[in-house]
Structure formats: C-alpha cells, structure tokens
Design a protein that fits this description.
- Its cofactor is pyridoxal 5'-phosphate.
- It comes from Dasyornis broadbenti (rufous bristle-bird).
- It is a single chain.
- The chain is of the alpha/beta class and 433 residues long.
- It has helices at residues 2-8, 26-37, 53-64, 80-94, 109-121, 138-144, 174-179, 203-216, 255-258, 273-284, 292-307, 315-337, 371-383, 414-432; strands at residues 40-41, 104-108, 127-132, 148-153, 155-156, 170-171, 185-191, 219-223, 249-254, 266-270, 340-342, 349-353, 385-386, 388-389, 405-409.
- 40% of the residues lie in helices and 15% in strands.
- Strands 2-10-9-8-7-3-4 form a seven-stranded mixed β-sheet, with helices on both faces. Strands 11-12-15-14 form a four-stranded antiparallel β-sheet, covered by helices on one side. A two-stranded parallel sheet has the order 1-13.
- Strand 11 and strand 12 form a beta hairpin.
- Helix 2 runs parallel beside helix 13 (371-383), helix 3 (53-64) packs across helix 11 (292-307) and helix 12 packs parallel to helix 14.
- The longest helix has 23 residues, at 315-337.
C-alpha cells in the first residue's frame, strides 16, 4: 500500500497553460495589507457610505413581498423586468430601438461581463489593444482567451502655468494609436471614464478610435461602469452612438458603480445581437444565472431613475454632485501636503504624484519592486493610510515610467476623508519639524 501511495502522487503539471503568468493579483496583496494595517482605506474602489434608500427598500420588498418566485431561477440571460427597463433606458441614451431579449444581457457584475466579452470574441492569435493605464483584469482576461494584448499609453502633457494637471491632460498620440492596428487586431478595450485616471474621453478622441475601428474592422469593448460619475459639467459620450460603431461595440455596465452597491454583483452588456449571441453562449456555460432578487431590486432602481431622468432628484444627478465635493476635498488635502493630485473628470478615483515624498521612502538600488509599490506598502504600515500603486495599471513594458504616482478612492464617508486628511496633516508637520 505504501509503494502504491508513493506512486499515486501526480507528477504531470496540473495547471492549464493559459494560466501561466497571470496568477499574481494586485488586489489580493493590497487588500490584505489594508486589512492588516490601515486606519483609513482609500485603496479599493468601493463606497463606504450606504446605497440609496430606494434601492435597499426595493430589496427588502423583494425579499419579504408575496412573490416567492423571486427566490427561484429567473431567465438565464437576465430577469425580464431588468432587461426590459435597461433596454428602455439605453434606448434613451443611444437614440435607437433595443430588444430587451437580444440587445441586453445581465451578468455577475461588470467583471463577468468583461470575461464573457473576451472569451466569446477573442481567440488564439488575435490582438487586443488596451489603453494604459488600464483596469488590471483586461490583460489576464485577454491572455486567458488566447489573445495577445497590445498596449498604447495615454501620455501626460503637464500644463505650463504650474496649475494642477487634469486627467484631460493625458492623451493618446494619434499616430502611435494608429500604428497599433493591424490585420491581427480583433478588438480595442475602451474604458471611459477611465479607472484609475478618471479621464473622460472627448468626442474628438472617441472619433479617432471609432475611425480606426471602422477602417480596420475592429470590435470595441467599451467599459462604461462609471458612466454617471462625471464632474465639472463634463459629458460622458457613448462610443456606440458614433457613426459605424453600434454594430461593433459591446457596452459594459454595473449596478455596483451606478447605485453604490458593489457587493450586489449585478452587471450587464448592451449591444447588437450578432455580438451578444456569442456572449450568451459563454454565460450559459459558465455562471448561467445571476441572483434573481438582486436583479429585481436593481430593476426597480432603474424604474425610479427612468421616471426621474434628468431631474434634480434623480440619483444619477445627485451622486456625481456629492462625489465632486468629496473629490475637491481630497484634492485640497493632498495638495496641501505636497502630493500633486491629477484632477479626475470622472470615476471615484484620483491619481497623485508622490515625487516630493521620496525623502520619506528612499530608493533601493537594483530593487525589482517598483517605487510606487514600496511607497504604498510603507505608507500603509507606517501612516495607516492605504492607496494603490499606479504602475499596477500598466504593462511590464511601460510600468517603470509611472512609478511616481499612487491611486486614491474618494467615494468615502466625509468622516473617512477627514481621517485621511488628519493623517496627511500630521505627516506634513513631521516633515517640516
């Protein structure tokens, strides 16, 4: 028996080859650090204030109401009331008729929506253009689908007058972008408003991307989870509404970001049936189905927003106003202590330049770890303030150019932002004394 048990140990590799090199994840490491050391966590992207009352009330009604079928399976590709109201909403936003059964699919958060896009539309040998900095799951998801990510960075153009930089000052070089398109290009991933920068792509920039997509017959995976979170009177433009783009674009959205309820994990895709039919195949063969009761509550939330569309009491009007004040407060706090914030036009993230803090965390020559990683770890352990290193949002090829920046999340209670401000002020006093 002993010799049999020795032989029974597996010697062949167990890991699928497509997982090679994508096993590390920034969130696993930094969430653990924040949980261990942080007094104030401005790292991870979730609000610490409550979801709106109308949404939690809708969930309570769904739970305790008379419809016991809400505890059972619903339609696999989306609860009928939810796909119906999403279709009505996006008809308004895109100015076109939508069929709730074929142009909308509900997913387990925007994360699964993205996974379905890459699995359904990308195959071995396909290239996918990713604009840097990028939400970190795009690269491993492209690789898992057998595709090759091709990176093109937004390049910062600091204003000459000494003013704070804005996310609008980070732009694509049109020639550089055009050079990334080839006959192997299957898709481009667009994230506007962009996490981590908070950049809202302008009509001119989107027009340039659209022109290249049409010219090279390329798909666009448009991650628009922060579509309602835009500031200073800026407009979020949906690339699918531009000429020639509806037919080749999948829009990804999220109730987590839209209604400040990230733990509900309700997302969706909107697009033409010719693309969505393939996403449905991946969905039905992976998760199959999302929680019925959460979909019901989100449907009611959208129903309310549809009747209040564009009115001052709409949550989609109120939330960005509140967040803009929080953004401005954090900008002030960071600027006062010498971290130079880049003013975001959207999202609930803000990137700050930490160059002036190099004396606190000296460089380690020949270190494999990027400076912003070391700085962020030092800051959470020694100051109790958690953030995320910006270079985590770059490819290996470009990450070393962006190691003087870190990302904060300002979708937080005022008390949390005040506590962060107190840490920064104390830090400043220690530096000057």
């Amino acid at each position: 028996i002993l010799s049999l048990s020795l032989q029974a140990k597996m010697s062949r590799p167990v890991q699928a080859r497509r997982l090679e090199g994508i096993d590390k994840n920034i969130w696993v490491e930094f969430v653990k650090l924040a949980a261990t050391y942080s007094k104030v966590n401005l790292g991870q992207g979730f609000p610490d204030f409550p979801a709106p009352d109308f949404l939690t009330e809708a969930l309570t009604r769904a739970l305790s109401g008379g419809n016991h079928m809400l505890h059972q399976y619903t339609r696999a590709f989306g609860h009928p009331p939810l796909v119906k109201v999403l279709a009505q909403f996006f008809e308004k936003l895109l100015g076109r008729d939508l069929d709730p059964m074929t142009n909308v699919m509900v997913t387990v958060g925007a994360y699964q929506a993205l996974f379905c896009c890459f699995q359904a539309l990308v195959e071995e040998g396909d290239e996918v253009i990713i604009i840097e900095p990028f939400f970190d799951c795009y690269e491993p998801m492209v690789k898992m689908a057998g595709g090759t990510p091709v990176f093109v960075p937004l390049r910062p153009n600091p204003p000459k007058d000494g003013k704070l930089m804005s996310s609008a000052d980070w732009q694509l070089d049109p020639a550089e972008l055009a050079s990334k398109f080839s006959e192997r290009t299957k898709a481009i991933v667009l994230n506007s408003p962009n996490n981590p920068l908070g950049k809202v792509f302008s009509c001119r920039e989107l027009g340039l991307i659209a022109e290249l997509c049409v010219k090279h017959d390329v798909l666009c995976i448009s991650d628009e989870v922060y579509e309602w979170l835009v500031y200073d009177g800026k407009q979020h433009i949906r690339i699918a509404s531009l000429q020639g783009m509806w037919d080749r674009t999948v829009i990804v959205g999220s109730a987590g970001k839209t209604f400040s309820a990230t733990g509900w994990k309700v997302g969706w895709v909107v697009g033409p049936d010719r693309l969505l039919q393939h996403l449905r195949t991946v969905h039905q063969n992976s998760v199959y189905h999302c929680a019925t009761i959460a979909q019901e509550a989100v449907a009611q939330g959208f129903q309310r927003e549809l009747t209040l569309y564009g009115k001052p009491e709409s949550y989609f009007v109120q939330l960005p106003k509140e967040l803009q004040q929080k953004r401005d407060w954090l900008i002030q706090s960071l600027n006062a202590v010498g971290m130079k914030p880049i003013i975001p036009e959207g999202t609930y993230f803000l990137v700050a330049d930490i160059s002036q803090f190099k004396s606190d965390v000296p460089d380690v020559p020949n270190s494999d770890e990027p400076y912003d990683y070391r700085f962020t770890k030092w800051m959470v352990k020694n100051k109790g303030l958690a953030a995320i290193p910006l270079s985590a949002f770059y490819s290996e090829a470009h990450k070393n150019n962006y190691t003087n920046f870190i990302r904060f999340c300002f979708a937080k209670e005022d008390a949390t932002l005040k506590a962060a401000n107190d840490i920064l002020q104390k830090w400043k006093q220690e530096k000057t004394s």
